[in-house]
Design brief:
Layout (H helix, E strand, L loop, with lengths): L2 E6 L5 H19 L7 E6 L2 H14 L14
Parallel strand pairs: 1-2
């Protein structure tokens, strides 16, 4: 039962977010062999001012065992 959470800056349209969620759902189904009913995708908008505190620190810097793709930026 994979649940994927995408954190991004505000400003993307509902159409873009829906398309992204649909593509991620399809990829999860293909790679992990789950049915669509088993996959959920959430999108959380985090402001640029809060990014370091709410995302970069806890989800990137302090999660080395869970991070499978490192960003090309530093804060």
């Amino acid at each position: 039962m994979p649940h994927v959470i995408i954190k991004l800056w505000p400003g993307k349209s509902e159409m873009q977010k829906a398309e992204l969620a649909g593509r991620i759902t399809k990829d999860v189904m293909e790679v992990l062999h789950y049915g669509e009913e088993s996959v959920s995708v959430g999108i959380e908008e985090i402001s640029a001012a809060e990014w370091a505190e709410k995302v970069y620190g806890p989800d990137i810097v302090n999660a080395p065992g869970r991070l499978y793709n490192e960003p090309g930026y530093r804060m």
